[in-house]
Amino acid sequence: MTGRIEAIQAQALYGVRHGFFTRRGGVSSGVYATLNGGVGSQDDPSAVAENRARMAGFLGVAAENFLVPYQIHSADALVVSAPWRPEARPRCDGLVTATPGLGLGVTGADCGVLLMADRTAGVIGAAHSGWKGALTGMVEGLVAAMEVLGARRENICGALGPTIAQKSYEVGPEFFQRFVAEDAGFARFFLPSATAGHFMFDLPGLIESRVERAGLGRFENLRLDTYSDEERFFSYRRTTHRKEPDYGRLVAGISLPA
Predict the structure, then answer these.
(1) Which structural domains are found in the chain, ordered by start?
(2) pLDDT tens, position by position, 139-160
(3) What does the sequence similarity comment in the record state about its family (predicted)?
(4) Considering the entire predicted model, what is its pTM?
(5) SS3 state at 139
């Protein structure tokens, strides 16, 4: 699986430098083969650094200017204008910038990875949205942060990258109750599973509904299932089911080249 770095691009973001990177084209081995972008994994740090440098090169920015936060499953988005030291990564799940020469990235391995851009304003954003972020407002947080820099939501285009699909995401009754307690309408994102009392959860559908409510100009769901496509994507849930010791992280990135 080594070789040329592979990135999937969205039509909605045509003309903006971006990529939803697959697991192909890196230097990692074993369960991390080959393009693991997770500094929080147990992979060789030098391999992860090389993988991220390759992603930065694809995005047209210097490796030290490719910024990925310390993700905490929040709805917090941060405006950035300069790189930070590796040990000073901010704890948040969204980044936005209007600074040329910077690239923004987020990691995922089943959770939603979102990229957004307002070409007219020259503002870009990236966000990680698992079920907690989708429930608590990560989409809205990212859009609001972009507006601080002059973006207009009707001009924002965005895309949802590889995310675990409903057919692959079984949850228990407590999970379902948490959502319907927040909004009874969220029941539409659940279908009964083959296991009594359990459900199949539509995380991409929930994220897309939050985007629609936010009023973006254009949005594309790539409809790629991380769990079922092992050749291209890492999956936390697949790793858990197999009782593997660890898993690689996918990266989604977007940039404003200088």
Answers:
(1) 7-163+221-256 (3.60.140.10)
(2) 999 999 999 999 999 999 999 9
(3) Belongs to the purine nucleoside phosphorylase YfiH/LACC1 family.
(4) 0.97
(5) helix
